[in-house]
Amino acid sequence: MDFGSINPVLLIASLMVASTPILLAAIGELVVERSGVLNLGVEGMMIVGAVSGFIVTVETQSPALGFVAGALGATLLSLVFGVLTLVFLSNQVATGLGLTLFGLGISALMGQEYAQLRTPTSPRWEFFGLNELPVIGPILFNQHPVVYLSLLLVVGVWWFLKTTRSGMILRAVGENHDAAHSLGYSVLGTRFAAIAFGGACAGLGGAFLSLVIVPQWTDGMTAGRGWIALAIVVFASWRAWRVLLGAYLFGGISVLQLNLQAAGFAIPVELLSMSPYLITILVLVIISSGRGRTGGQAPASLGRSFHASG
Amino acid sequence: MIRLEQRAAPSRVWAYLTPLVAVLATMVAGGALFAALGTDPVAAIRTIFWDPVFGEFAFYYRGQLLVKAGPLILIAVGLALGFKAGIWNIGAEGQYIIGAICGAAVGLAFYPMEARWLIFPLMVVAGALGGFLWAMIPGVLRTKFNTNEILVSLLLVYVAEQILAWMALGPLRNPEGAGFPGSRNLRQYESAANNELIAGSGMHWGVVAAFVAVIFAYILLSKHLTGFHIRLTGESPRAARFAGVNPTRLVLFCLGVSGALAGLAGLFEVAGPSGQISIDFNVGYGFTAIIVAFLGRLHPVGILLAGLLMALTYIGGEAAQATLGLPAAAIQAFQGMLLFFLLGFDVLTNFRVRFGRRAMV
After folding, report:
1. Is any Cβ of chain A less than 8 angstroms from the Cβ of B150?
2. Which of B32, B124, B205, B303 has its CA 20 to 30 A from that of A201?
């Protein structure tokens, strides 16, 4: 029952691990939303990624293949969303919700025979002994490869959106799809690619959850992380760097509350468990107050269907 | 070359046909899914859709139909009002939980006093009020701070689940329950019980409330100015502003009504079919109601039918679980699939499929 039992170095190291699923899902969703598509199915894609990754790892005993399968499974699901919203022009909000409901169902169905199993753990990187360094060793040089991958993805997305031609086209499609279309850019192609990327990222995040963090399969194990990822994209004002900040902030809160629970603080467990959700809401309120309904910085075509009817 | 051509006006025929086509397509795709799981698809579909109504044990299942459909319809009617206006309350599950907790708490506070004329109505009010206040959180945040109501209402579901766990283990736990989690059983408490009104029919006060809600929503949408404002805002927010619609009031109205109805559904469930506050009290009605609202085309009468159909898949799913060994999660996937097909086929309402090359314009 004292703060002494909480080690700040380990706290930061585990914060990075706990934040990774949310960071991956959020950076993927950021790209999707920058292309003008609102995919509310992040939770569904994450859970399908979690179950696909887990099943393949159990069957092949290879966590690496598991991560690939997690990303592929969620991408497949995201393409269903793509076909419905882009080709059949369905309402993006409703379809995203459908994706989450379907994802939760199909994942429970796929995973029911894998509930009690365990997978081989994938080793952390050690960087030739650099992990022995005090303080920064455990934080910077002794993490799971996917943690580094998630950081690389943040840098990559930032670079892609800011400096590349394709990134500019993607932003143009998100800001004004009619103008982008009349300039000869493929609105559907861009959006399909963005949706698939978002799916792959969410799936990777889900697989990281079921293979590294928990590591086990249970129904509904994403427990709202997909929704928090969506909130973080709003919090980040659709900027890659701020997604990193947001994800680590929330990762920090959830790790801290777990530590407080373990340290036996005189705060009810339920109150601690609901704190990440409450703080997400609080941050959303602070970020969105003083802005217009669309958020000022939101892509202008966000959530609108595109049909080249002229 | 197949392409889509926008219709001048939405097709009325397809607006009615889409749900039927979607149900049929889901049966086919669901059958394929069941076949992949090693279950005879024809037997599975018959067990889910036919046997509960016309089969050997239909006398039992028919009652269950209303028990399951009641909360779904009650919640979906409220949600549809908001969905029509582009106000997305997707946290009905949380409002359902809070309504149940508030209602049950009022009932338990009076235990063991016997005064049904006072206690049960008070519980109903408390349930509706609980759901209403829980929905007012996203409502006020949206109108005061422009906070996205989709995210807030959904995140509050997780908060509500934690409150439920706390209540079941702490304040509302049955003091005579030998330490087990969960409250007293309200069905055994005469003044608070929401029992069947007609034995074997499944008809309880929640089902009555659902029917009343359908009628009121129908009148509201077709005859009342607020209903007109809801439809106008959904179809053209800009026109609605010019017509003098107060967006703040509309957001609060839609979220408040849907929250109160979800809270009522929770109260009737906890005092009736479920009987007690327990950790796993909520079973996802708040989320399934979203599918019901869309399947019913956001129309009160459509929702009534859609709620009955969705209740059928719940009951049929349970039956298929017992007789065919179909996993419980299969029916959840099946319901999600239905929403996909519905949204997909809906394109035919607003667009026409054309074959051949596009004429040069």
Report:
1. yes
2. B32
CATH of the domain at B256: 1.10.3470
The letter for the amino acid at B19 is P
Task: Name the percent of chain A lying above pLDDT 70.
Answer: 88
What does the DSSP assignment read for B40-81? -HHHHHHHHHTHHHHSTTHHHHHHHHHHHHHHHHHHHHHHHH
Structure tokens of B110? 């009076």
* Res B12: pLDDT: 80
Residues 6+ apart with CB under 8 A from B107: B119, B120, B123, B186, B189, B191, B192, B271
Task: Note if the bond before B273 is cis, omega within 30 degrees.
Answer: no
- The verdict on A279 touching B (C-beta cutoff 8 Å) is no
Quick check: B188 contacting A, CB < 8 Å? Answer: no
Domain-located, residue B358: no
Most confidently predicted of A16-20, A121-125, B138-142: B138-142
Q: Do A228 and B6 touch (CB under 8 A)?
A: no
Judge whether B353 lies within some domain. Answer: no
CA distance B143 to B145: 6
Q: What is the pLDDT of residues A193-213, one digit of tens each?
A: 999 999 999 999 999 998 888
Residue B171 has what pLDDT?
A: 84
CA distance, residue A115 to nearest chain B CA (Å): 13
CA distance A147 to A154: 11
Of residues A109, A273, A288, nearest to B162 (C-beta): A273
- Cβ contact A105–B158 (<8 Å): no
H helical segments located in A135-239:
136-140, 145-163, 165-175, 177-182, 187-208, 225-235
Look at residue B354 and give its three-state secondary structure: strand
B148 touches chain A (CB under 8 A): yes
Beta bridge partners of A131: none
> Which residue bears the tokens 């992949």?
B36
Using the Cβ of A105 and the Cβ atoms of chain B, whether some distance falls under 8 Å is answered with yes
Write phi, then psi, for B111 (nearest 5 degrees): -55, 135
Task: State yes or no: pLDDT of A294 exceeds 70.
Answer: no
Interface of A with B in 223-242 (CB under 8 A): 223-224, 227-228, 230-231, 234
Cβ pair A43, A227 in contact under 8 A = yes
B179 residue type, one letter: G
CB B122 within 8 A of CB B105: no
pLDDT score for A310: 46
Please indicate if any CB of chain A lies within 8 Å of the CB of B155. Answer: yes
Q: B interface mutation test: which of A85, A106, A110, A304 has the most B CBs within 10 A?
A: A106
* In a domain? residue B8: no
Tokens of B13: 């025929």
Question: How close does chain B come to A154, measured CA to CA in Å?
Answer: 23
- When pLDDT is cut at 50, 70 and 90, the band that residue A309 belongs to is low
Domains and CATH numbers, chain A: 3-119+142-288 (1.10.3470)
Report d(CA A270, CA A275) in Å as an integer.
9
Note down the domain range covering B251.
38-326
The ipTM value here is: 0.85
- B15 domain-assigned: no
Give the model's pLDDT for residue B46.
86
CA distance readout (Å), A291 to A68, A118, A148, B147: 40, 47, 34, 9
- Per the structure, the count of domains in chain B is 1
Residues (pLDDT < 70) of chain B are: 1, 356-361
* B145: chain A residues, CB-CB within 8 Å: 285, 288-289
